[in-house]
Design a protein that fits this description.
2 copies of one chain form a homodimer.
Chain A: E1 2-6, H1 10-19, E2 26-32, E3 47-49, E4 62-65, H2 72-80, E5 86-87, H3 96-110, E6 113-115, H4 124-135, E7 139-145, E8 148-149, H5 151-158, E9 163-172, H6 174-181, H7 190-193, E10 194-202, H8 208-216, E11 226-231, H9 234-240, E12 246-256, E13 262-272, H10 275-295, E14 300-302, H11 317-323
Parallel strand pairs in A: 1-2, 1-4, 2-3, 4-5, 5-6, 6-14, 10-11
Antiparallel strand pairs in A: 7-12, 8-9, 9-10, 12-13
Helix pairs in contact in A: 1-10, 2-3
Amino acid sequence: MKIAVYGYGNLGKGVEAAVRQNPDAELVGVFTRRDPAAVKTLTGAKVFSASEVKAFKDEIDVLILCGGSATDLPETTPALAGDFNVIDSFDTHARIPEHFERVDAAAKKGGRLALISGGWDPGLFSLNRLYASAILPDGADYTFWGRGVSQGHSDAIRRIPGVKDARQYTVPVPEALEKVRAGETPALTTREKHTRECFVVPEEGADLAAIETAIKTMPNYFADYDTTVSFLTEEELLRDHAGLPHGGFVIRTGKTGLEKEHSHTIEYKLTLDSNPEFTASVLLALARAVDRLAKRGETGCRTVFDIAPADLSPLSPEELRARML
Amino acid sequence: MKIAVYGYGNLGKGVEAAVRQNPDAELVGVFTRRDPAAVKTLTGAKVFSASEVKAFKDEIDVLILCGGSATDLPETTPALAGDFNVIDSFDTHARIPEHFERVDAAAKKGGRLALISGGWDPGLFSLNRLYASAILPDGADYTFWGRGVSQGHSDAIRRIPGVKDARQYTVPVPEALEKVRAGETPALTTREKHTRECFVVPEEGADLAAIETAIKTMPNYFADYDTTVSFLTEEELLRDHAGLPHGGFVIRTGKTGLEKEHSHTIEYKLTLDSNPEFTASVLLALARAVDRLAKRGETGCRTVFDIAPADLSPLSPEELRARML
């Protein structure tokens, strides 16, 4: 399948790397809104201007949209879904229904297939919420994130006056995890589920106390959490916090039996060295499915919930049954 | 959907209980090869003779086959797949391809839909092997079972002369689990992955040393494992080992990045108080999917790999996207 990347940031680079691990995929190139001459790809993949993407309509099986969910994807995905089979990793959970409707309409109109909200959350975590809740209807599920770098929270700290750079880790509270695993189905507040660790490089002469207060009292981002703030040098940040690790847990506990006398726990856990590379790897498996569904003549928008697992694998149905079932 | 149970052992009883947790399911009855008058169901469900099942052709949406994999299902599933939409939990991994072909032919001939090898392994564990390997092609996966009761191994002990009753637990070796989680992709022998704990009630005057030797040297079942044997009274067995807990782990570790410099771990873990009730709960979710696919006019044999996750859930696609994605 011929893959192209639209938007060449961390996620786009992850797709570029992932293509090399999947012999059935080939990278047509990378489309960027920057000057193509100024963009150098990791593997020597060709770079094109985003403005000329539609000229490649017939040369791309699946276009992977690697923009951000805040402003890029709500525009880009519907705009391109009429001309390409597309995949995105739209992750603003509350706006998924509306994004789905717009992409579905565009894809149907153009006779193309789209898949939105691929990745691990939404994505693999969503799948686990669905499977576990279908199997254990009398139960509760919990999603914990981390320990990992939240780009949104790191950006929020960087916007505070006096901050030169910052890295924020989301950390699940071990006691909350243990309660959930024990089947206690606790009602957990935001504060009880996660803590936030902030590593901040201040500008020279900045007011550290003011920065710390600005972080800890920031509504939505930090005010509802137990937050710790550590100041460090730029060298220390680069040395100790250069990576983008992430991960988390989806845990469902539920009861069965005539008297609900038996407890069960289903736990799914990801531990990721590189959030963008792992997300890209999920998108590439989904691209395989999108390519297959499109070649079967399907059109419109899909999510991970609509994809039969077999369509993600390069193995044939016979091989899958013989080796993996 | 109208469900019926064929074979009323632990699994059949689990399905009977699970139906009460799923408002969209209704239990037509239980079919048994025993004298129906001698079978009393847990919930007062009707009992019919297995020999008259075909008279119920038009009254059952999905027939759940609850026989054993050794001798029952290889006969029963193909024999009934032409007249009913059926599900089984056939778990002899090596014989799945052949079972699939026979059931597929029968179901296609009768215009019905079948799903084989539902449950958690094969089943949920298979799904996790597939998803994880499609996402991390450069990696290795490992399946560990337990701590849990293996019925097959318990039965094998009971066949030894001088043994009145027995319960065998399969236990994953913690050090092996830790090596796998650490991404070391170790080559593990059978002995390094699991130990076996046997609790044996001897007949009066039995030769305990001979029983212990017979267990520990039994080929396939115990000879390749570190096995411990404890003798106890029947009362102790009933008091401390009455349940059928089980569970296990599917772990895949893999690398991404141009130099494969990033490691990732995907871990799926089940902790089950009741193996048959949990398996039955999986079968009921799969029955929902089978019913839907059959009503769409699909025929032939399927496995969990072929089922789009959305079809397992009682929620609509819109609800799933809004609440679980």
